[in-house]
Amino acid sequence: MVICIPPEQHAEFSALINQTLQHRKTVFIDELGWSIPAQGLIERDEFDDHATYFISIRNQRVLSSTRLLPTDQPHLMSEYFDDLCHGGAPRAPDILEISRMCVSPQMRSPARRSYEISKLVTACLEYSLLRDVRALSFVTSTGFIPSMLRVGLTLLPLGLPRPTETDIISAWQLQVSPHGLDALSSHFKMTLPLMRMADQIRIAA
């Protein structure tokens, strides 16, 4: 199950969100060596207060997570990766940014990690279709793009790739459509709907 937690329900689901932030610190800072600040045992930035979280859980244990941010206010791409976008980062009420996609550090199988990431993207597409969102913008390692195209997703490059010390990154938009949702869910044999809104369930905070 992937739970969608909007900002107004962060407090109710604080235990799950805290697990998510701990995973982000372990994966992004401890393992990948990202130059971003930690807050003790968690990684949290200035955009998390406005995030809609998508958290894949089993038995109240977080398996993977990501977040969507509104682009008509400051967000990760506009504040830190604007140079990756020709003409600047897209901003519109019907464009959201997907970022901080993280799989539990306990999940080491590449196949399982790929499946968890696909679950998160599927849930984000379900959410976006319900809210008339037309695109999801994101920054990623350019090496991930071919696998996304192979499953039938429609991607629009926002600018030229940029090398970093350890990778080559680029900015993209994922076009939201029923076709993309069907292609992704069919490829990974997922049963829809996958996403559940937080107000449909009750989990102890």
Automatic annotation (TrEMBL):
<dbReference type="Pfam" id="PF00765">
    <property type="entry name" value="Autoind_synth"/>
</dbReference>
<dbReference type="GO" id="GO:0009372">
    <property type="term" value="P:quorum sensing"/>
</dbReference>
<dbReference type="InterPro" id="IPR016181">
    <property type="entry name" value="Acyl_CoA_acyltransferase"/>
</dbReference>
<keyword id="KW-0071">Autoinducer synthesis</keyword>
<protein>
    <recommendedName>
        <fullName>Acyl-homoserine-lactone synthase</fullName>
        <ecNumber>2.3.1.184</ecNumber>
    </recommendedName>
</protein>
<dbReference type="InterPro" id="IPR001690">
    <property type="entry name" value="Autoind_synthase"/>
</dbReference>
<comment type="similarity">
    <text>Belongs to the autoinducer synthase family.</text>
</comment>
<keyword id="KW-0673">Quorum sensing</keyword>
<dbReference type="GO" id="GO:0007165">
    <property type="term" value="P:signal transduction"/>
</dbReference>
<dbReference type="GO" id="GO:0061579">
    <property type="term" value="F:N-acyl homoserine lactone synthase activity"/>
</dbReference>
<keyword id="KW-0808">Transferase</keyword>
<keyword id="KW-0949">S-adenosyl-L-methionine</keyword>
